[in-house]
UniProtKB/TrEMBL annotation:
Name of the protein in question: Proteasome subunit beta
Domain of life, source organism: Eukaryota
GO biological process terms on file: proteasomal protein catabolic process
Role: Component of the proteasome, a multicatalytic proteinase complex which is characterized by its ability to cleave peptides with Arg, Phe, Tyr, Leu, and Glu adjacent to the leaving group at neutral or slightly basic pH. The proteasome has an ATP-dependent proteolytic activity.
Family recorded in the similarity comment: Belongs to the peptidase T1B family.
Subunit and partners: Component of the proteasome complex.
Gene3D superfamilies: Glutamine Phosphoribosylpyrophosphate, subunit 1, domain 1 (3.60.20.10)
Pfam families assigned: Proteasome
Keywords: Cytoplasm, Nucleus, Proteasome
Amino acid sequence: MADTVIGIAGKDFVVMAADKSRARSIVIMVNEEDKIMNLERNKLLGASGSPGDCSQFCDLIQKNLNLHRFKTDVPLSTNAAAHFTRNQLAQALRKSPYQCNLLLGGFDEDEGASLYYLDYLASLQKLKYGAQGYASYFVLSILDKDYRPDLTVEDAVALLHNCFAELRQRFMINSPNFIIKVVDANGIRVVEQ
């Protein structure tokens, strides 16, 4: 998986970044794809893996979270959305598995910011930072070294830029374009680069 998804959870925000290229074999098909889906107004879902599976699965999750909110008039918390997503992956694993690995981050008024790691085998883990794809071999050491619980949004974005620089230097699959999104109490926004 050449796709890159990186997430960092701060005290009151989650910053998520993903490369914008979609490649197959040795050919880059698209150079401006957003691999981070907005879920409701306070959750982000970053996907890495097979393009068709990622697109279909993220749409499934987005539509079902919206359906739940319309039926009950109560949006799911980030924790509940992560467990719902994990349950969908686990059910599909026995029939026709989705080949996608995910980072789900969000901000809830009562729980604060949270980030969850989900893989195609339906494992779920709450993290302070994480990465999906081959790029994780390079960026996790940077995140281990430089992550602090008191990071500001600006510090987290600067840390992501350090990760991007390392990928450009060491990773043989060049990912020149990245998108960065932030979710906090004010909702979701894209960080201009």
